[in-house]
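hey can u check if this looks right to u? its 746 residues, i copy pasted from the old doc so theres a chance i mangled smth
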Amino acid sequence: MFSKTRCLWPILAVVLFVSLSGDAAAAEPQRNARVANLFGNAGFEEGREEWQLDQGGKTVARFSVDDRDAGAGQRSAVLALDKVDSWGVQFGQRIEAPAVGKTYTFAVLAKSVKEPAAIRLEIERRADPYDRAAASSRFDLRPEAWREFHVTFKVEKAFPEGWFAYVSCQQSGAEFRLDMLRLYEGEYVPYQQVEKEEMAAIEVALFDTRVSSPTPLSGKAIAEGSRWIRVPEDSEQPFQGDAVVRNDRLALVLRRGAPRAELFSQGAGGFLPRAVLTPGGSQPDARIASLAVVENNPGEVVLDASFQSADGTQSGLRLAVALGQAFVRTEPLGKTPGLDVEAPCRFVVLPDFFADDIVVDATGLSVPTAEIPSENFLLHFLPNRDAIVMTVANNRGQDARVELSGEGPQRLIRRSGMQYGERGKIWVAMIQGEEIWRQQEVRTEDAGKILKMQWTAPFPAQWRVDWTLSDKLTSSWEMASELKSGEFLKPGWFGNPDTLPSDRRRWTTVLGTFPYPCWLDKAGQGHLQPLARALRFQGPALVYPINRVRQTPLSEFTVVDLVRATLGVGPCEYILDVEGQGATRKGRATCATRDTLKAIYAAKQQKQKRAEIERVLEEVVVFVKHIRGRIDDYVDFGRQMLAYLQQQRQSHPELAEFLAEMETSTKAIDSAFEQRKSQIQTPQYVVDLTDKFRRTLLDYDGGDALDRCTEITHAIVNVGGNQDELVGECRSAVKVLRQRAGLAMA
């Protein structure tokens, strides 16, 4: 029988590959149990992100990241100076200055590439008079081996403008590598010592309890391990009791004869039960029949658990716990189709890194089971707001299943199930900590009002707010953070944050001008101000940490951290950046083109800067063509989807009402395009404008040169502005379509 789910999946599958603009990336967490590093991406494992290379005068230098050599981790930065002028190069990061009176250390692993090179470590005020908080003596680098250099200093005065902490060099022809830059509170501790202590603290261990327990173990028993035997690496002895795998983050318990694997997380209160794992599709009476050790060392423990039911049906899971990680990796044994995760909660969230999340509220679902389009990720928001259980699947496009129970306010999503697919893996991960997520009820009459939340962010991060709209859809926003200056910083997905003024006024294509609706004040306390128009926020608003920022403690995990840690950097970047926008913009925006050309012509420098003008004209054409390509993708998608929906309407008249809703959402794309068609013109129109500029203005220095430049660039900006508006309108339409389809599946 044809189901609504089968009808919906093609809609969702196509939507996911439509150009939904937005950036997503984050630093994979690097754990350090001792101190917090003020530098982000300290070991360059995420490439060039967060780092900047400033060059004085006519200095010519290059900065790259590769994996040919590293002092720590897999990658390091390479700085090459061809020509030096003025103060040479300054390579570092801009950071908020800490409080006066504290002692800090600035350290770096470094080596030259071929010839010796000289560097200094410096920290200066980020504004005039650019005085120093710290400055080292000269350090001489040699190519033979990595060495760590440092300067320890006391913060003697306030730096309200913040710091620029950097490595400087004034040596022409110098080429050197840098790795693991650290700026932390306290005296100097060698990185090798820190790394050694950290590794010892986070290693994974396998224990035999010696006696099998008929009931789940307590958190206290797991922490103490009284009378347990740590299984040696080379042991081939069978388990006398139950198996317990433990690292500094979690514990996995496999009890003989038990129906499931039990997952605990470790926090300030010890080990707490969070979820239970069972093979998907197994019989209700299936029990763990046998355990086999596949791998057992301080870096990783891997066990095979075989389940058997009374009728002899078998299924199985391969379960792995790694050093320092907050997740269990699972793989199917035999014909096991999937993994079931029991973690009762009211809210399940399907995070989306380029559009809006889908929030499934158990109190709004009356069915006992439901299918939801999980894609790769699914979050269980556990009661007490102290943990989020996250499942990650490496196979995209696999529906998830949820099972529900209870009535009214007590109704819960009891478990979720995901399919492995071909060569599939599913990870079950933990994000935990007091107040790690928060729920705030928003009423219609709260629109425009500032709501001071009884919640303070437990640590700095990119906190996402999932607002419930009056039509039960979700609108996802990232919380801005108030700076010492009174301005607000809104984190960006690719390390490009936006700065909002002190009144939080912001403009977007669809909403116009409005006060940004969610933020953390200087003390980290949350505030909400539901929009007074356009979007009607009504119902629960959920807050959770989706990504890290530079100030995020190294010991904390966010959703994107776990995506990177499980799927790996390459697949993660593909998922987080569906459209391929990345951190690189294609071409030059029309507004930037106008400002650059008008500045040149206002200064009457058009003849001296002819080459720059040519480059700007070429880049703006690239930009316009790129944005038009995105628009065409939206329009093509809309027309294909309408054809699909019309076909389904004819084949399945029983779904006419639902399909009509989908058609209405889809038609919004074509409607927006028709309204702006005359304003966006065609890419050839902009090509013709740039050709006209070359013919009439490249060598022209008459008194009306600036006016003629303004006339042409204004026409180009009109195209670009309308293209931006149209992309925003199409994106909004697709977001609504995707959510409606996803919720209808549930």
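The first helix runs from residue 4 to 15.
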